[in-house]
Amino acid sequence: MQRLGCGAAALLRRSQGDGAAAALVPQLVRSYATTQMTIRDALNSAMDEEMARDETVFIMGEEVAEYQGAYKITRGLLQKYGPKRVKDTPITEAGFTGIGVGAAFQGLRPIVEFMTFNFSMQAIDQIVNSAAKHHYMSSGAVTCPIVFRGANGAAAGVAAQHSQCFAAWYSSVPGLKVLAPYDSEDARGLLKAAIRDPDPVVFLENEILYGEPFPVDEAVLDKDFVVPIGKAKIMRSGSDITLVGFGKMVGYNLKAAELLEQEGISAEVLNLRSLKPIDRDAIAASVRKTHRVLSVEEGWPQSGVGSEIISIAIEECFDDLDAPPERVTGAEVPMPYAQNLEAAALPTVEHVVAAVKRMMGK
């Protein structure tokens, strides 16, 4: 009951912060003909189009139907596709995740929403020991085309049990694919690719970015637009250092690159998008070009995604490096609740800038 109480209050604050009247009123799925699209709309439209394309796709999770989604990602889908394909579940992640995995074994394509990936810990046996391993253990006879999606990493004011980044956890598991979108192009194209993929996919979103608008071109709005899994994207070209990140940290790296440019430092920004499989070739090519690499992530430092990025840089480009690879991460503490301590536990643009200047000898 304590979890439900604090979660409901936090969700209400977040909904109101994005426009309470619009967020709490069910809306039918719109057609998007604008060059600006929020992450929320990108995810919503991707699921809508994939459900229309393939009748085996369905959505399940807490509050995804009648309430239109805790973050309104699934708004309008119940009205359009009905309760057989948009299913509210009890607060039992192990139970409904197991149902989703079993449905995937039988040829359906479930999208399982976790209100936050912190709650996926209740279902980690189903994700890791069932979904990820069954194709291998059945000698390829059984596939598991399922998407596990939801908010990952730090939100705002929701404390230690709601603010962990699970990117490193899940990307260490053979049999899973792990995606982490930054902008609306990523969110829309990667989610479509995930739904169509024959393997289980962990799809890590960021709550803070749900209401953020990003420009998209007409190609992104095409119903068959997908972003290929396993391919990183250069967001900004540079020659002095490579900044590697995923999710919200890509935005931090882009802001840091703008500030560094004013001081004569040219930073290349690489958006990983796919954490498993990770694009080793893109990382190596960028490091060979810039001769320095800094990894930036919200997660904890030990055994983090940054450790893998640095390993790739050393294994592939050791002779090309002009400085030791470094990383900016969250602090090695459970997330504090107090606003000032929460801010101190998370990376900032200033941390990125300071690390780059240190690596450049400035």
UniProtKB/TrEMBL annotation:
Top-rank taxon of the source lineage equals Eukaryota
Subcellular localization: Mitochondrion
Q: Which reaction does it catalyse?
A: N(6)-[(R)-lipoyl]-L-lysyl-[protein] + pyruvate + H(+) = N(6)-[(R)-S(8)-acetyldihydrolipoyl]-L-lysyl-[protein] + CO2
The molecular function terms of the Gene Ontology recorded here are: metal ion binding; pyruvate dehydrogenase (acetyl-transferring) activity
What cofactor is this protein dependent on? thiamine diphosphate
> By its UniProt entry, which InterPro entries does this protein fall under?
PDHB_mito-type (IPR027110), THDP-binding (IPR029061), Transketo_C/PFOR_II (IPR009014), Transketolase-like_Pyr-bd (IPR005475), Transketolase_C (IPR033248)
**What EC class is this?**
oxidoreductase
**UniProt keyword annotations, A-Z:** Metal-binding, Mitochondrion, Oxidoreductase, Potassium, Pyruvate, Thiamine pyrophosphate, Transit peptide
CDD domains attached to this UniProt entry: TPP_PYR_E1-PDHc-beta_like
**Transketolase-like pyrimidine-binding domain sequence ranges:** 37-212
SMART domains, alphabetized: Transket_pyr
GO BP field: pyruvate decarboxylation to acetyl-CoA
Q: State any GO CC term.
A: mitochondrion
Q: What is its EC number?
A: 1.2.4.1
Please give the NCBIfam families that the UniProt record associates with this protein.
PRK09212.1 (NF006667), PRK11892.1 (NF008854)
Described function: The pyruvate dehydrogenase complex catalyzes the overall conversion of pyruvate to acetyl-CoA and CO2.
**Name of the molecule in the record:** Pyruvate dehydrogenase E1 component subunit beta
Which species is this UniProt entry from? Answer: Chlorella variabilis (Green alga)
Q: What taxonomic ancestry is recorded?
A: Eukaryota, Viridiplantae, Chlorophyta, core chlorophytes, Trebouxiophyceae
